[in-house]
Specification:
335 residues; alpha/beta; eleven-stranded mixed β-sheet
């Protein structure tokens, strides 16, 4: 099993990617990792971490793609970047099970669309993200930024692909909902209403209807479908809201000596409250519908998160995610 890793992608790279690679290699003895990055820097780090070097190889790349780089031109302006080199290699080489990166989302989407392409029948790839819920489980939101302008057929396919992904991940009959401004049928804009009807018409999908933004966090659906614009706004608002509440709480417990003392007795319970948020931030996001498995990690991903993404890529390859999506959408033509 061979995984392609963008060794310079992410805020903590390459320390995080090296740590993730070593952990994954030690977990799976049949795993081989190819790192895109400067070998002169990466090799000593791997050797210091006692990585099994017989299962490690390198793709020489001199620089990283940054958040300040324009995603639509990085392939031309930074052809020697780790992400550009990784995409060019993945395009030509079918031996890789998956590619993993914590680099900029926009660049990852652009590279996937322009270099990798779509599974036959897929109209548009959809980026899936994980959000925590009150139940302690997570909800899968798609699309969260790959497609700003959507047609109802795109949203329908997002539902089909996300359903296939969750079933392969062990959820027998995932509940699917469409993000809207009301739960009643007929609520929403023209796009959401049309998508509602398409998803509802498929008897193989466990469609539960519309869901409002505040109900997503109540765990009332396993998959929430929306266009990339709405999904991205919702996701980023949720993330900042969580940070805002955390900052307010920290300020409150530091207010005086009494609140500081009381906080000492609550630390164990506070850690439990944070668990679903920690899980969501550590989950990798697949770009559903791409010809090859591409997994996106958060820019702040640590070694543990990247290791989990690498192993997830192996799992999805073994379970036949691409074949499952292709078979489900067989007969549908690309636009």
């Amino acid at each position: 099993m061979k995984i392609l890793l963008d060794a310079l992608g992410g805020d903590k790279a390459p320390a995080s990617t090296i740590a993730g690679a070593i952990e994954a290699l030690n977990t799976r003895k049949d795993l081989e990792i190819v790192l895109a990055g400067p070998e002169a820097i990466l090799r000593p780090m791997l050797e210091k971490g006692k990585a099994p070097m017989d299962r490690v190889s390198f793709l020489e790349a001199k620089q990283a793609v940054l958040n300040t780089d324009h995603p639509s031109v990085f392939l031309k302006e930074k052809p020697d970047s780790s992400l550009a080199v990784a995409f060019e290699t993945l395009r030509k080489d079918d031996s890789f099970a998956a590619m993993v990166s914590a680099g900029p989302t926009g660049a990852l989407l652009t590279g996937t669309v322009l270099r990798i392409g779509r599974i036959q029948g897929v109209l548009r790839p959809g980026l899936l993200a994980v959000v925590p819920t009150r139940t302690g489980k997570v909800c899968h939101l798609v699309d969260v930024g790959a497609n700003m302008d959507c047609k109802p057929e795109y949203l329908y396919q997002f539902a089909v692909m996300a359903d296939a992904y969750l079933r392969l991940s062990g959820l027998a009959s995932p509940r699917i909902a469409t993000l809207s401004v009301g739960m009643e049928e007929g609520k929403g804009n023209e796009l959401s209403k049309a998508a509602y009807e398409l998803i509802k018409a498929n008897p193989k999908l466990n469609f539960v209807g519309n869901i409002e933004g505040d109900h997503v966090l109540r765990g009332e659906a396993d998959i929430v479908i929306c266009d990339g614009f709405s999904g991205n706004v919702f996701l980023k608002s949720l993330e900042e809201g969580a940070y805002f509440i955390a900052d307010l709480f920290q300020a409150a417990i530091k207010k005086n000596i009494i609140t500081k003392f009381g906080a000492l007795f609550q630390l164990r319970h506070l850690k439990k409250v944070k668990e679903p948020f920690n899980y969501a931030s550590k989950a990798s996001s697949p770009l559903l519908g791409a010809k090859k498995i591409v997994l996106k990690c958060h820019g702040k991903a640590d070694g543990e998160t990247l290791a989990a993404a690498i192993l997830k890529g192996c799992e999805l390859k073994e379970k036949g995610l691409l074949e499952q999506i292709g078979e489900t959408l067989k007969g549908q033509e690309q636009d």
